[in-house]
Amino acid sequence: IKELKLRIQKKLSSQLKVTLRNKRFRLLHHNIVTPTGVIQGALQMLSTLLDNFYDSSLSLGTNQKSYFVSKKEMDQLKEQIDETMGWIHESTGQLIKMGQNLSALFSDSTMSLKKIHLSLSYFLYDCVAQHQPKQLDCYIDPALPEVTLDLDKNMMGTVLFEILDNAVLHNDNRRSSVHIKAYIKDHEVVISFQDNGRGIDLVDHENIFKEFWSVYEDIHHTRGQGMGLWICKKYITAHGGSIWVEDSQPEKGTTLCISLPL
Question: Would you say the pTM of this structure is higher than 0.85?
Answer without folding.
Answer: no
